[in-house]
Specification:
The protein is built from 22 helices and four strands. By secondary structure, the chain is mostly helical. The strands form two sheets. A two-stranded antiparallel ribbon has the order 1-2. Strands 3-4 form a two-stranded antiparallel ribbon. The radius of gyration is 24 Å and the shape is globular.
Length: 458
């Protein structure tokens, strides 16, 4: 908070008729200035923590619950394999299209308000989509839920950087752990819950709207409260703050406004930003192929539907402990390349197992792919590490995630097309193996100890 105030220029009025002297100012240590700008309230900080955890729990069930019931949804709506591949490509498409709008919306309405609206959109989409009765309606309602996920995806690293600047690793770990928990829970219990509710896939998908509705609540008190970031140019907006100053001699306290405009950051000039965007895109490709198709791969290999859902859950649940450990480890290393390589090797081993013996070693392949999917919390952590300022984090998060999700769109769709036309999983798995190599290469580049501000300036 005091660092934010140090960036603001405050001016003292010398007389009732004289102009403000730009050379005479209050520093961040001035007690009058400090008293005028209170620190973040304890209740607000607690609400932010609860909001982060509940929001993270809701950022994947809309996807993994569908993956567990994809065959039933396809039969119920009459989808072909290619159309199902399109359905699994909708998440990255929505994340790319709507995620890029998140910083602008946050500047206008505040990050808390945007995340609150995002949770409302998720709730509404999950309630509506099972009952639309058509593929087009199902896709539209899914897009509404994914729009809410998209803006929250982008703003979570920004919120963490603003409210917990000295705990980026641990808070990113907590957020990533909750995200992995929600992902795995949806994969594990959707099929049993569907059976308990009478076998209706509509009921099995709708139940996740309850969790989304709960995530709306902690953000409601923060809709108008922008917290410690209100004076910070981290979201890229102009900053104006009223500071109590007293005219020399006698007289009333006057309010003087100081406006600070953050310097423009040309993010596309940064090689690290591009490397991080491609890394994000390739790991997202692997993740959405896994979430959308892995249960079907096991089912086609003769694994029962309930067990296939559990295997997908195992893959997702691996992220619960590792998503907390990996960000903390990454922030302690000057170069995150070794972690990128280790995760990539696990992915290659898991895909090779799916290709050679999908049923015989199913549990081992599920574990290995779960470890590999922890490239996501690593990418989020690197977003916070590759920029020095909150403004840089906001721009880098929007750029890396929007560009990355654009890159990831063809992957799940191509897997569906290859599966439809080849009649098996050999070619799709070969594609996954082929994409893991460049993911490791660009991840090593993104992990170098550099900042986008320095590269953009050059």
């Amino acid at each position: 908070m005091m660092g934010d105030m140090a960036s603001e220029e405050t001016r003292t009025v010398k007389s009732t008729t004289a102009r403000p002297d730009a050379n005479a100012g209050h520093s961040a240590a001035d007690p009058e200035v400090a008293a005028a700008v209170p620190g973040p309230r304890a209740w607000a900080v607690r609400l932010v923590v609860v909001g982060i955890v509940l929001s993270a729990l809701n950022l994947r069930p809309a996807i993994t619950s569908l993956g567990a019931l994809l065959e039933e949804v396809r039969d119920g709506l009459g989808m072909s394999g290619s159309v199902a591949g399109l359905l699994t490509s909708v998440p990255p498409l929505c994340f790319a299209v709507f995620g890029v709008t998140a910083p602008r919306l946050a500047r206008r309405f505040g990050a808390g308000a945007v995340v609150c609206a995002g949770m409302v959109a998720i709730t509404t989409g999950l309630l509506v989509r099972p009952y639309t009765g058509s593929t087009a309606g199902f896709l539209a309602a899914s897009a509404l839920a994914l729009m809410g996920i998209a803006v929250s995806n982008v703003l979570m690293p920004v919120i963490v950087k603003r409210w917990f600047p000295d705990r980026v690793g641990s808070m990113t770990g907590l957020y990533s752990m909750a995200l992995a928990l929600g992902t795995s829970a949806a994969a594990a219990v959707t099929v049993p819950v569907t059976e308990a509710l009478g076998g209706s896939w509509q009921s099995g998908l709708t139940v996740w709207a309850v969790l989304a509705a709960a995530a709306v609540l902690p953000w409601i008190p923060l809709v108008r409260d922008r917290g410690p970031a209100s004076s910070e140019p981290t979201a890229g907006r102009d900053t104006a703050r009223s500071v109590h100053t007293r005219v020399e001699g006698a007289g009333p306290v006057r309010h003087v406004h100081a406006r600070v405009e953050p310097p423009a950051l040309r993010i596309t000039r940064s090689r690290t930003a591009w490397a991080l965007a491609v890394f994000f895109g390739l790991q997202a490709t692997a993740a959405y192929i896994t979430m959308g198709w892995m249960a079907q791969i096991f089912r086609d290999a003769g694994v029962p539907a309930g067990t296939a859902g559990l295997l997908l859950a195992v893959t997702m649940v691996m992220g619960v402990p590792l998503a907390f450990v990996i960000p903390r480890l990454a922030t302690r290393l000057p170069h995150q390349g070794p972690i990128v390589v280790a995760l990539g090797v696990c992915g290659l081993a898991g895909y090779a197992g799916l290709y050679l013996a999908p049923a015989a070693g199913a549990w081992a392949w599920a574990v290995l792919l779960g470890v590999s999917n922890c490239a996501f919390p690593l990418a989020l952590t690197m977003v916070g590490m590759r920029a020095r300022t909150g403004a840089g984090v906001a721009q880098l998060s929007a750029f890396a995630q929007s560009t990355g999700y654009l890159i990831s769109i063809p992957g799940p769709l191509l897997v569906g097309v290859l599966y439809q036309h080849s009649g098996g999983w050999g070619l799709p798995i070969a594609l996954m193996i082929g994409l893991m190599i460049p993911q490791m290469a660009v991840g090593v580049l993104a992990g170098r100890d550099r900042t986008v501000e320095d590269e953009a300036a050059r």
